[in-house]
Amino acid sequence: MYKKILVPLDGSDLSASVLPYVRWLASTLRTPVELLHVEDVNRLAPYSPPLQIGYLDGIAESFSDGSDVKCTIERGSPAELIIHKASAEPGVLVAMATHGYTGAARWLLGSVTQKALRGLHGDLLTVRPGGAGDRQAALETIIVPLDLSPAAEQVFAAVSDLARRLAVEILLVHVTKHVYTGPPDAFLPVFGAIPNLKELWEHDEAAGAAYLTEKVTELRARGVTRISSKLLPGGVDGAAGEIIAAAENTPRSLIVMTSAGQSGLARWLVGSVTERVVCHSRTPVLVIRAQA
Questions:
Q1: CB 32 within 8 A of CB 1
Q2: What confidence score (pLDDT) does residue 264 get?
Q3: By CB atoms within 10 Å of each CB, which of 82, 97, 263, 283 scores lowest?
Q4: What is the spatial distance between Cα 55 and Cα 90, in angstroms, rounded to a whole number?
Q5: Other residues' Cβ atoms within 10 Å of the Cβ of residue 71
């Protein structure tokens, strides 16, 4: 699985909100952790002294006994250094918060996370500040959105391994096409232009249900025993909105999605949906880097 979890921290409570999930993953997967603070040379001010190593040492002590935790402080551009360190060795998972302006001498978390999402060659775990108040968070369900494309299925190897190691359930979801349901006077012209709209909708539902059943069988063949699926009707908020809503209705869940891939004219632009989920989800999101 992962050989190291790299955790960028800027000294704020916002960036530290990822730590409960990192503690759980590190102890359960027995994975070494590197706590990284980057002194942003473009934002340091005379009235704002650099972060002291004692801050990272204190966080390292909060991990369970036996955890392998390293503390590193470097100077440079936060996003560039995070991407560089994560790409320097294989099997690195970057775990960081997603939102929040954290002070004049610190980072704009949303900007740094978005650059990491687009620039990393490896996987990225994102957590929205305020998502977990516990010292150590535990997850029970991995939600895997699928759009019928091979690109979205690239998460299967990772989620199968995680499900076995973390003893969690996998929930496969597919969002059907949204059918406009406005007032009758506005809706009728749509049926006039596309006489078989209802038929197309029903066909998409049937195809999605059959696809999910097939993928449940496929993952069971990989050794996953706790797995289910759910068809989500498309809504006005699009696929991202339905995925986020499903996760919010599933306690202690983690969304796992791939990072890129055009999945067809009538399906999702996977990268775009992933970015929207990362940006707006209150549920942790693990982005698996898509392979060419």
A1: no
A2: 43
A3: 263
A4: 28
A5: 18
Strand partners, 258: 288
Q: If we measure between CA atoms, which residue out of 74, 88, 89 comes closest to residue 10?
A: 74
Sheet holding 92-97, edge to edge: 69-76, 33-40, 4-8, 92-97, 123-127, 285-288, 253-258, 141-145, 169-175, 227-232
Q: What span, in angstroms and rounded, lies between the C-alpha atoms of 16 and 38?
A: 14
Number of H helices, E strands in the chain: 9, 10
Report the Cα 206 to chain-centroid distance in Å.
28
Query: Position 145: which residue type?
Result: P
H or E segment at 267?
none
Find the distance separating the first CA and the last CA of the chain, reported in whole Å.
20
**Got the DSSP string for 131-179?**
S--SSS----EEEEE--SSTTGGGGHHHHHHHHHHHT-EEEEEEEPPP-
pLDDT at 168 over 70: yes
Taking the model in full, what pTM does it have? Answer: 0.85
Tell whether the torsion through CA atoms of 253, 257, 263 and 269 is positive or negative: positive
Tokens 């289910």 identify what position? 228
Among residues 43, 44, 32, the alpha carbon closest in space to that of 7 is found at 32
What is the token pair recorded at 77?
Answer: 């551009």
Round to whole Å and give the CA distance between 192 and 194. 6
- Beta carbons within 8 Å of 111's beta carbon, 6+ residues apart: 79
pLDDT band for position 201 (50/70/90)?
confident
